[in-house]
Amino acid sequence: MARSVSTGDLWWKNAVIYCVDVETYFDSDGDGVGDLVGLTKRIDYLAELGVTCLWLMPFYPTPDRDDGYDVTDLFGVDSRLGTHGDLVELVRAADDRGIRVIADLVVNHTSAQHPWFKAARRSKDNPYRDYYVWRSDPPPDTSDKVVFPDKEDGIWSYDERTGEWYLHHFFSHQPDLNFANPAVREHIAKSLGFWLQLGLAGFRVDAVPFLIADVDTAADDVPGDPHAYLKALRSFLGRRRGDAILLGEVNLPHKEQRAYFGGSDGDELTMMFDFIGMEALYLSLAREDARPLAKALKARPKIHPDCQWATFVRNHDELTLDKLSESERQEVFAAFGPEPSMQLYGRGLKRRVPPMMGGDPRRVRMIYSLLFSLPGTPTLYYGEEIGMGEDLEAEGRMAVRTPMQWEPTRNGGFSTAPPRRLIQRMVPDGYGPEHVNVADQKRDPDSLWNFMRTLVQTYRECPELGWGEFTVLAQPHREVLAHRCHWEGSSVVAVHNLSAQPASTQLAMDPGDLAADEPVWLEDLIAHEALEVGTDGTVELALDGYAHRWLRVRQGTP
Ligand code: NOJ
Fold this sequence. Notes:
This protein has 558 residues and is of the alpha/beta class. Helix content is 28%, strand content 18%. Among the domains are: 115-167, Oligo-1,6-glucosidase, domain 2 (Alpha-Beta Complex); 468-555, Immunoglobulin-like, CATH 2.60.40. An 8-stranded parallel beta barrel has the order 1-2-3-7-8-9-10-14. Strands 15-16-17-22-19-20 form a 6-stranded antiparallel β-sheet. The protein has a 3-stranded antiparallel β-sheet with strand order 4-6-5, with no helix packed on it. It is globular, with a radius of gyration of 24 Å. The model is unreliable at 216-223 (pLDDT under 50).
């Protein structure tokens, strides 16, 4: 069947995803903590920006020792954030504006406070013992496997009560669930089904590689193949809601990522974050050389046409650079986070984009223009649309999880609570709400917010970017990335200058674009001007420092 964008069946192919931490977005009742009712009040804001998919970070009951990624009830809503009723109202309001809602699915582990783990620790023969992974002999040195090297020294912790060690890939207060246990898998499926029934359109699946790591010891229905579990989960999802997605966090080399998409069958994760591309982007930015990024994009494995890459330049964690070599990582650190206070776990940065770019609006806009024009589905982390900064004094990743800045008033309009009662303090420096906020930027036609809105809308008008075939175009400047996305007879060419120096470049049109009898020209989709293509099939482009151009190939007379 011919694909038609208007059917929207594969809505994730050109969605605009927006990630929100409910507790820091908008506080509707003045207790200092953002809530679901508050977020619902901001749905029109998200619709105005052009968001089509809202990703909620964990909203489940939690002792909050890993910002909600430590869950005590897979079926619950954290009472500080609201109720199931509030969640359903949010989903309904979003649906009304054409926005789908997905949520973090955190099932690699639970909180150590989860009733299952509490029961499991009671005795070795407790029925819940097998919900977790235990060993009776002392573990070997696993210090090289820990995710948080400043907090943990191994992935097994000793349980005094029962005299055995339990597995935890993350914090020791996050014991890993045992996926080899069919009862665990049953609970997970039930929880998925539960949230789908309440209206969610899918899940951002946390820590996928860790999750399936232990499945190979699993029971009959997933014999020996960890990926069979993901296939089973996807097929369950499809049975319950045909258009629901699994957007996976899989920070692995390309070859393995392809397997998590289900290879050529495309029957595992629907989407996956492009970590490799994101890391290469920062190397390119640091060097002012587009080649690392171009190389990473060209090396993306071929995926099933129904699957998709989620592109991003910032998420809620440390900006990880773990897939770069040590010397490459040091180059990025030197360029964008030279102080130890800006770095985390030796592998990442705890900064947001504008401060990293020295506040240069041309460079910041060029980066977001790249985000929206690279092949894939762009994902924004709340606050990026107004260029929020970070709080370097906040512990670890909390530096980039500060409250949303709505107005230039007390608490940035996030909450009416006294500042000392806020879940987290506002960004205190020149990026604070007096300087960076939604209200001011919405009124200013030249603001980042309005630029971002243009990008969102232009992206939505260019299905080639989400659906098309990607090629890097040859041109002489290493500072410049010129790429083309082609889909159903239509092409968009994007050109970005990663350097502060102006460049003048010549691009050759694709022979396919020139094949028609009519003249070919380029329509600049952001600057709204027409560019002539010479009779030799090339176009001359004068690029300012940090320039960004989006050009649609057109036929006929401008
Ligand atoms: C990945 C999440 O993005 C991160 O915030 C969390 O700490 C770990 N998974 C553990 O759930």
